[in-house]
Amino acid sequence: MTPPRRPRIQLFPVLGGLVFLAVAVLYLLQAAGVLRLDSRLVLPLGAAGLVVAGLLAAVYSARPRRDASQESSDR
Fold it and tell me: What pTM was computed for the model?
């Protein structure tokens, strides 16, 4: 009997959430007066972060998955 396969991590939602969290923290710091940031940069920075997250997720999902059975036979 083969062991059950663990599902792959969906990388884009994780990275996308981190991008939105970073934008929210920047906004809160700017609203509190701690950080001075040009508001015209927020949208392009968020979009660029989502593009990078999408590219990383695509590269991660395109990699072949290694099973535990392959790892044990490699040793």
Answer: 0.65
